[in-house]
Design goal:
This is Methionine gamma-lyase. The protein has 12 helices and 12 strands. With 425 residues, it is α/β, with parallel strands linked by helices. Strand 2, helix 6 and strand 3 form a beta-alpha-beta unit. Bound molecules: pyridoxal-5'-phosphate.
Length: 425
């Protein structure tokens, strides 16, 4: 019955059987992923119980949003969940890039220097910082920038970092996830060591972690190991697939206060910002997030194991530990990227019939191809694949609100590659 169902969805017997043979070797791995989800589910529940979440917190507010108890309590829940003094969790934060922009511009003043000790940050941050000149960049406001490349083996260049931290250095930005690079994603432990090193070099330096795609993949978060701020998007992990918009910044009271003044206005800060009826989605999304993230991690591990077996370079490897939900597969050609993305698209519940094509996306330097049939547009905790059309022609695969949907997507991606003759099964 099962093969027949997959056949109806477009998966051939050969692809189905290949997938099952790979899955046979992943039982122990999946057990470990479930254990992390169980721990994080308890962590979220504890934060909700401590803050006595109840139905009144789900009420919609409009206008200024003064005394919005649902919003304020959600921020206490986030702060307790991520073990920080304060949190800013808002639908007015439109995306991850916006959350990072708020965190950076709120905590850097003219004359300060920003340092990335982990090499070039995510594409969209280049314009925020002013690496690529852009109106309203930090550079335009007198904030200078420096970066230290990773060593060839992907580890931190501690000597170079030590040299780069000067009396101007005010904020250190550390991106947890690889983003559109083929470097490894850092573990929370590695990030903790880097933060400790930077604080030893300069005790009053602020350390911010771009936590996009990392939330709930491990039992700890960078905020457990000294980060002054962790920042992310609600249409990625912590929104659990239900949040239709939003971003968060969790951190010290001082940093988060400044972020709130930057997001709204000096003097207003966290007091304003109506929730527009989004509280049920934000609370329930956070509640679901640990198991949704586990589904995404299982899908990523399955993709790695399949494509590794087919002879492609995958980052991380199927046996490596995971610190985010992203799986890079180096496909080696534009045609293979398009076929892969067509497979992911055709597995979707929404827009399964459309064909993804490469296009010039705002904020990105190269053409980008994206496969995303999502309930929330652009949501990448939902099953999706994307990548810039440039060597090594890597697709970045992520998400899957349920593991079985992720599985279908990967099977269909292999099907499309087989149909175009790029792989043989
Ligand atoms: C997605 C992402 C961002 C930007 O988030 P958007 O919501 O796309 O603006 C920043 N950094 C990393 C590492 C990301 O994965």
């Amino acid at each position: 019955m099962m093969n027949e169902m997959y056949r109806q969805l477009g998966v051939s017997q050969a692809v189905y059987e290949f997938g099952e043979s790979i899955l046979g070797g992943l039982t122990e791995r999946f057990r470990e992923i479930d254990a992390v989800a169980e721990y994080n589910q308890c962590k979220v529940l504890a934060a909700m119980q401590k803050n006595r979440v109840n139905a009144t917190h789900f009420a919609a507010t409009t206008g200024y949003g003064y005394d919005d108890e649902g919003r304020d309590n959600l921020e206490r829940v986030y702060a307790d969940c991520f073990h920080t003094e304060a949190a800013l969790v808002r639908p007015q934060i439109t995306c991850g890039t916006h959350a990072l922009t708020v965190a950076l511009s709120a905590n850097l003043r003219p004359g300060d220097e920003l340092l990335s000790p982990v090499g070039r940050p995510y594409d969209t941050l280049e314009e925020v910082i002013g690496i690529r000149p852009s109106p309203c960049s930090l550079a335009e406001y007198g904030v200078s920038y420096r970066e230290v490349e990773l060593l060839p083996d992907g580890t931190f260049d501690y000597e170079g970092i030590h040299r780069a931290i000067t009396e101007k250095t005010r904020l250190i930005t550390i991106q947890r996830s690889k983003g559109y690079a083929t470097r490894p994603t850092f573990s929370v432990e590695q990030i903790g060591e880097l933060i400790a090193f930077c604080k030893k070099c300069k005790p009053d330096v602020l350390c911010m972690v771009d936590n996009c795609y990392g939330e709930f993949v491990e039992m700890r978060e960078p905020s457990d190991l000294g980060a002054d701020m962790i920042v992310g998007s609600l249409i990625k992990n912590p929104g659990g697939g239900l949040a239709p918009i939003g971003g968060y910044i969790c951190g010290t009271r001082e940093c988060v206060d400044r972020c709130a003044y930057r997001l709204s206005a000096p003097g207003l800060g966290q007091e304003v910002g109506a929730n527009l009826g989004l509280m049920p989605a934000f609370y329930q999304g956070l509640f679901l997030s640990p198991t949704v993230v586990a589904s995404a991690v299982k899908s990523a591990v399955f993709a790695a194991a399949c494509y590794e077996k087919l002879g492609f370079r995958v980052v991380p490897g199927s046996g490596e530990s995971r610190h985010d939900i992203i799986q890079a597969v180096e496909l080696g050609s534009k045609e293979a990227m398009v076929a892969f993305c067509k497979g992911i698209q055709s597995a979707a519940a929404v827009d399964s019939y459309v064909t993804p094509e490469p296009w010039a996306m705002p904020g990105y330097e190269s053409e980008v191809i994206m496969a995303a049939g999502a309930f929330v547009q652009g949501s990448s905790i939902e099953l999706s694949a994307d990548g810039p059309i440039r060597p090594p022609y890597a697709v970045y695969f992520q998400g899957g609100l349920t593991w079985f949907h992720g599985k279908l997507g990967i099977l269909l991606s292999m099907q499309k590659l087989a149909d175009t003759g790029i792989i043989k099964l």
